[in-house]
Write a structure and sequence with these properties.
By secondary structure, the protein is mostly beta strands. The protein contains three helices and 17 strands.
């Protein structure tokens, strides 16, 4: 994972906090990612189900893996082609601190994706989408173990708010669930290391979900309990992100993390931070952290960059 130059994670975190504090002074209002009264925030560890114009810059994460510490700083931009069809481009800068080896850093492979939001129910606060993507092999640097082959993926995304619950369950109405299930397929079944060792690359079942409790929804749609800024814009959540190998001698081997955290959402941007808890030693050796500053381009530039290229009215 990453770090720009010699910038350390603590410095990045300070910069994010300062910038977010400045944004908090702006007026707060509705943003993108809506189904009826339900606002779905952009989640940090599992892709969100909606299509919109948005920019994540940066997303910073660090974790101790069995091979050593990995730090990553990434950027991702999403753009609507039509109101329901969007494309995404992502890149990351990685810093690796392998066990008993020199530190190294560099760019990872470029990632491209497309998503089609084919169903939205305002009454039931529901969104369904289909997506496909590719990590383009050879676009990253070998010194950070960027793969030379590409990996294609396809997934189904969903979002469901519980705002349609009955009155006696009103306090559960702020709850929402988003998630995905998909598969990643590498274009190479295996590669040789030093012309001797063979590394196999299995197809991977990817799945995960985010369980959210929106204090924004509680205050605006259920009951004003007197929360004031910045607490009235918080969305506590826990994300679950997993991958299970399907073949090539690794069937059933699962990696993944459980990420409890919180998102603050304002008018033009949101800030989120989560702990990254490995589910097993194959995933990691200690608790990591991920933080993200995310901009709503549709609210920042509603008549230019933040609107669909076609079908806009």
């Amino acid at each position: 994972m990453t770090s720009i130059g010699k910038m350390k994670l603590s410095n990045v975190a300070v910069a994010l906090v300062v910038l977010t504090s400045a944004l908090a002074l702006a007026n707060m209002a509705s943003a993108h990612g809506f189904a009826g009264a339900r606002f779905f925030p952009a989640t940090l560890s599992t892709d969100d189900p909606f299509v919109n114009d948005e920019l994540s810059l940066p997303t910073v994460s660090t974790i101790e893996t069995p091979e050593g510490r990995e730090t990553e700083i990434s950027a991702d931009i999403a753009k609507r082609i039509t109101p329901n069809l969007g494309i995404e481009v992502g890149e990351s800068f990685l810093e690796l601190n392998p066990n008993d080896e020199p530190e190294t850093s560099g760019l990872g492979n470029v990632e491209l994706a497309a998503k089609y939001q084919f169903f939205t129910s305002e009454a039931h606060e529901t969104i369904f989408s289909l997506g496909a993507g590719v990590e383009i092999g050879g676009t990253g640097q070998k010194r950070v173990d960027a793969e030379t082959f590409s990996t294609w993926s396809a997934a189904f995304f969903f979002g469901k708010g519980l705002g349609d619950l009955t009155e006696n369950l009103a306090l559960l109405r702020p709850v929402a669930l988003t998630g995905l299930v998909g598969v990643a397929i590498p274009t190479s079944a295996s590669t040789q290391i030093n012309n001797v060792e063979i590394e196999r690359h299995p197809n991977v079942l990817q799945y995960g979900f985010a369980l959210e409790y929106s204090l924004i929804y509680l205050q605006e749609q259920v009951k004003d309990i007197g929360l004031r800024a910045p607490f009235d814009r918080l969305i506590p959540l826990t994300e679950f992100s997993f991958g299970t190998s399907l073949n090539r001698g690794q069937s059933g081997q699962t990696t993944g993390t459980i990420n409890p955290g919180v998102i603050w959402s304002g008018k033009y941007a949101q800030f989120g931070v989560e702990a990254v808890i490995p589910i097993n030693e194959r995933t990691g050796k200690s608790v990591g952290v991920i933080a993200q500053l995310h901009f709503y381009l549709d609210d920042l530039f509603p008549r230019s960059l933040g609107r669909p290229l076609f079908g806009w009215r």
